[in-house]
Amino acid sequence: MTALLEGLVIAHLGQGIAVEYDHKIILCQTLRRLDTIAVGDKVLWSLSSSDQGRIEEILPRRSLLERPSRNGKTRPVAANIDTVFIVFAVEPNCDFLLIDQYLAVCENRNIDVALVLNKTDLPQTAIIEKELLDYKKLGYPLYRVSALGSSNIDELKNVLKGQVSMLAGQSGVGKSSLTNAIIPDKDIKTNTVSATTKHGRHTTTATTLYHLTDGGYLIDSPGVAIFGLAGLSEHQLAYGYREFQTHIDNCQFNDCRHLKDKGCAVVTAVDNGDISKTRYDRFLKLREKMPVTFI
C-alpha cells in the first residue's frame, strides 16, 4: 500500500495543486470524490510518479472562508485561517458596509478579525474616526499603517507571527502594497513555486500561502475582494453583529427578525443607544442583499 504523507496546500496552479511537504513543493492532482480543496488545507497525499503526487484526503478544517459561486453554490477561498485582517483606507471611500459583511462572516466561521487602516499618511475624517471608535468598543483590534511610508509595518508583522492570516478588503485600499511590505521577497517565492512544479508563472489572481520570516503564514488572495454572505442564514447574519449577541436571546420570539418585530430586544437596544444606529442600519442593508431562501 502506498504511504500517505501529510502536506500543506500552498497554491492552485491551473489543474494542479501545489502541496508543501518536508520543505519541498509537489504538484498534485486530486481524487474526483474529494470536495474542492482550498489553499491552507492540510491533506494526505501519495506519490503517483517520481515528481508528482495525488491528494487522497482533506484533513479536518478548523475554519473555512467561502465565496459565492454559480447556481447559488459556494467555493472555498481559504482554509484553516486564524485571523482575517480587513484592510480599508480613506481613499477609496471607506466602505463600512463591506467591513460589516466581512465581520459577520468571520464571526460565524470561527475566525478572528482585526482592522487595518492603511494610507495613514492621508488626513482622517471625523466620520471615520467615529466609526472606528464603535469597532474598538466591540473589541476588534485596530492597526494604523502606511504601506507606502512603511509606517507601523513592523507592528503588523509582529501580530502576524505564529498564525495563519489573510488580508481582505475592497480594491484600491493597498492590499497588494501591504503584502509586498510584509513579504519583500514575494515575487521570488512565487516564482520558486512555479519553477518547482514546472507549471510556469502564477496568475495574479492565484490564492497563495506564503511563509513569513518570523513564523506564521500569510494567505494572499488578490482575486477575491469580496467573499460575500455565502452560506449565512438570516439568524447567522444577526449573530455576526457582535453587539447583537447579548440581546438576541432576550427577544420575545425565537424567530425574531430584528426589524419591527414585537418585543425585539435588539431594536430596543438601538433605541436606547446601546447599539450603534449606523451599524444597525447597515445590518438592515445586508439583510436586503441576502438570498430569498435562507439556509
Output the CATH topology of the largest domain: Rossmann fold
In total, the number of strands is: 13
Main sheet overview: 6 strands, mixed
- Which structural class best describes the helix and strand composition? alpha/beta
CATH architecture of the largest domain: 3-Layer(aba) Sandwich
- Radius of gyration in whole Å, from Cα? 21 Å
CATH superfamily of the largest domain: P-loop containing nucleotide triphosphate hydrolases
In whole angstroms, the N-to-C terminal distance is 42 Å
As laid out across the biggest beta sheet, the strand order is: 10-9-8-11-13-12
Number of helices: 9
**CATH class wording of the largest domain:** Alpha Beta
Q: How many domains? A: 3
Instruction: Give the mean pLDDT.
Output: 88
Low-confidence runs of at least 5 consecutive residues:
none
How are helices and strands ordered from N to C?
A: EEEEEEEEHEHEHEHHEEHHHH
Which geometry do the CA atoms define?
Answer: globular
* Percent helix range: 25-40%
Strand fraction band? Answer: 25-35%
Task: Please specify the SSE layout and strand pairing.
Layout lengths: L4 E9 L2 E6 L2 E7 L11 E6 L4 E7 L5 E5 L5 E6 L3 E7 L6 H12 L4 E7 L7 H12 L4 E3 L8 H8 L3 E5 L6 H8 L3 H11 L11 E4 L5 E4 L13 H6 L5 H4 L16 H7 L5 H13 L6
Helix pairs in contact: 1-9
